[in-house]
Amino acid sequence: MINETQIQQVIGTTAIDADGDKIGKVSEVYLDDETGRPEWATVHTGLFGTKETFVPLAQAELSGEQLRFPYDKAKVKDAPKVDTDGHLSPQEEQELYRYYGLGGGTTTETTSQTTTGTAGMAAGTAGTAGMAAETAGRTDRDGDGVYDDVAGRTVGHDTSGPTTDEAMTRSEERLNVGTRSEEVGRARLRKYVVTENVTETVPVSREEVRVEREPITDANVGNAMDGPAISEEEHEVTLHAERPVVEKEAVPVERVRLDKQTVTDQERVSEDVRKEEIEVDDGTGVAGNALDRDNDGRIGR
C-alpha cells in the first residue's frame, strides 16, 4: 500500500506487473478526496507510451525505482479508457473498480486529487455540481452544493462543483530533462590488398677483357719459343657478371584495433510547459492580491 509520504517517490518509477514485466512509466497519482491517501496511479502504456491508463494503488508495492502491481501487463493495458484531466467522476471510478475486481470501494461518491511530478499535490474539485449524496460522512442536506462541514465558513462557492474549502490550489508543469542511449551507427575494420611499385638501386659488377702486351725478355723467352715458330691458335677466357635478384617475403608491420571513447557535448532542448494562474475579481473592477506581484490580476510567479 502506498502512503502519502511516498507520492513523490512513486511518480516517474517503472510500473511492472505481477511477473516482473515492464508495463510503463508512472505519470500521475490521484488522491482520495476524504482521506488524502493515494488511490490511483496513471501509467504510460501502449506504443511509445502514448496511452495513459489508471491502475489502483491499493495493493501496489514500491521497491526502489519500480512499482509492482498485482495484475498482468495485458490486464492493465486493456483497462477502461478514462481521460486524465485531474478528476475522476464517480461513474468512472466505479467502472475502474469493477474492472479490477475491487468492488465499490469506499469512495463511490468522491473524486480524486491529482499530483504531478514536480508541482506537488493539487487539490481537485470535490465532485460534480449538484451532488447531494452522502460521501464518506460528508453531507449536503440542503442541496446547495456546499458540504455541511464547511457551511458557515467564509468560503467562495466553487462554480465547477460543490464547495470544498476556502482555497484553490495552483499547479504548474515543470520540465524534467534527461538522456537515453540509442544506436547511431557502427564502425568496422576491413583490410584489403593494394599493389605499389618499389624501386631500389643495387650495385652489380662484371668482368671485362683487357689486352696486355709484354716484350720478350730473358725471363719469358722460354715460354715465347715453346711451340712451332709459325702457327695458328686461339685463347679464351670466361667472363662473369652480376645480375640483380629480387625476392619477396611477407612480414608483420603493425596491429590495428577499434576502440571507443565518450565525448560529451552540450545540446539545448525546448518544450512548452503549462501552468495555472488564478485571477482575482472582487467585484470592484480592481484586480489584485498579495500574490499578484505584477498587479495584473493573476496570482503566480
From TrEMBL:
<dbReference type="GO" id="GO:0030077">
    <property type="term" value="C:plasma membrane light-harvesting complex"/>
</dbReference>
<feature type="region of interest" description="Disordered">
    <location>
        <begin position="260"/>
        <end position="301"/>
    </location>
</feature>
<feature type="domain" description="PRC-barrel">
    <location>
        <begin position="7"/>
        <end position="59"/>
    </location>
</feature>
<dbReference type="GO" id="GO:0019684">
    <property type="term" value="P:photosynthesis, light reaction"/>
</dbReference>
<feature type="compositionally biased region" description="Basic and acidic residues">
    <location>
        <begin position="260"/>
        <end position="277"/>
    </location>
</feature>
<feature type="region of interest" description="Disordered">
    <location>
        <begin position="151"/>
        <end position="181"/>
    </location>
</feature>
<dbReference type="InterPro" id="IPR019060">
    <property type="entry name" value="DUF2382"/>
</dbReference>
<feature type="compositionally biased region" description="Basic and acidic residues">
    <location>
        <begin position="291"/>
        <end position="301"/>
    </location>
</feature>
<dbReference type="InterPro" id="IPR027275">
    <property type="entry name" value="PRC-brl_dom"/>
</dbReference>
<feature type="compositionally biased region" description="Basic and acidic residues">
    <location>
        <begin position="167"/>
        <end position="181"/>
    </location>
</feature>
<dbReference type="InterPro" id="IPR052967">
    <property type="entry name" value="Stress_Response_Assoc"/>
</dbReference>
<dbReference type="Pfam" id="PF09557">
    <property type="entry name" value="DUF2382"/>
</dbReference>
<dbReference type="InterPro" id="IPR011033">
    <property type="entry name" value="PRC_barrel-like_sf"/>
</dbReference>
<protein>
    <submittedName>
        <fullName>Uncharacterized protein</fullName>
    </submittedName>
</protein>
<dbReference type="InterPro" id="IPR014747">
    <property type="entry name" value="Bac_photo_RC_H_C"/>
</dbReference>
<feature type="domain" description="DUF2382">
    <location>
        <begin position="168"/>
        <end position="280"/>
    </location>
</feature>
<dbReference type="Pfam" id="PF05239">
    <property type="entry name" value="PRC"/>
</dbReference>
